[in-house]
TrEMBL record:
Annotated source species: Alkalihalophilus pseudofirmus (strain ATCC BAA-2126 / JCM 17055 / OF4)
Protein known as: Protein-arginine kinase
A single Gene Ontology CC term: extracellular space
GO molecular function annotation: ATP binding; creatine kinase activity; protein arginine kinase activity
Catalyses which reaction(s): L-arginyl-[protein] + ATP = N(omega)-phospho-L-arginyl-[protein] + ADP + H(+)
Source taxonomy: Bacteria, Bacillati, Bacillota, Bacilli, Bacillales
Function: Catalyzes the specific phosphorylation of arginine residues in a large number of proteins. Is part of the bacterial stress response system. Protein arginine phosphorylation has a physiologically important role and is involved in the regulation of many critical cellular processes, such as protein homeostasis, motility, competence, and stringent and stress responses, by regulating gene expression and protein activity.
Motif RDXXRA motif of the pArg binding pocket involved in allosteric regulation boundaries: 338-343
Amino acid sequence: MSLQKFISEAISPWMKKDGADSDIVLSSRIRLARNLKEYKFPLLATMEESSAVVKQVKESLLTDDNQETGPLELVLMEDLKANEKRVLVEKHLISPNLAEQSKHGAVILSEDESVSIMINEEDHLRIQCLFPGFQLTKGLEAASRLDDWIEERVTYAFDEKRGYLTSCPTNVGTGLRASVMMHLPALAMTRQLNKILPAINQLGLVVRGIYGEGSEALGNLFQVSNQLTLGKSEQDIVEDLRDVVMQLIQQERAAREVLMQSSKLQLEDRVYRSYGILSYSRVIESKEATQRLSDVRLGIDVGLLENVSANILNELMILTQPGFLQQYAGEVLSPDLRDERRATLIRERLKLENDTNE
């Protein structure tokens, strides 16, 4: 498989589109938790009941075309190898939880991968819509239309007082999780994040790492999302998150200006050192690679690096993860071999970028 072909398959088509404030907000996600009325929730369901849920969802959703999402395809977890599941996690199309524990789980994907419907994760359905950049309102509108389309075909577990019923009490109500993936390197460099993040938590929001709950914030990438779903409308939840994200965008831009005005030489040195290391390293660990990629992306966004695509962070952050490295190699790799392959892949990708722009 050629590098170009691998890249085109590794990056979801929706990621290549433009979105507002994409220099800081990489993506916006709306996720709805739903359960089917006639079945036990996944945590208590038998294998037969879980299989019946998959069967009903398949028959209900895949027999009719959805004009908005386009063709939908069902992927069963039991048909995937461990590394194939890992790749889907790295692309944010399924959760680590679905990949690790659900034998009778599945996912329905749209052709451009902007829609992902997980089946038998913590809830019967986890409906996810993804958009590039800062597009929470557009994401909510798309998710609501998809939710209505699904509800015409299945019966949700719903209570007039409590709203949509879910396995976890924190999701009861709207069942909505709105989140944005943000690149905040300047706030990290100026040590402002330690003050900002606790304040965000006090507002009923939560800040997590790149793969959600329990994951590390690699490469200065942070996922900011709502924590409460009960007692607020979907619009209010999205608006509250939107207000906080707007403030974070303004603070990150202000921090970038400060760095450019007061420490431009040091910032330029850091950016070019990271670019050089990525361009010539023969071995590089995942954590260092993500940090160097963060530096390069910052250099691109503030104008220190030219003729390098801003999509480089999105692409290489995914391409250099363990699952994709092993998928590309076609075999299981030891940690040392992964570090070697990671360095090679980054070198080749940067060379391809340079050759394209010459």
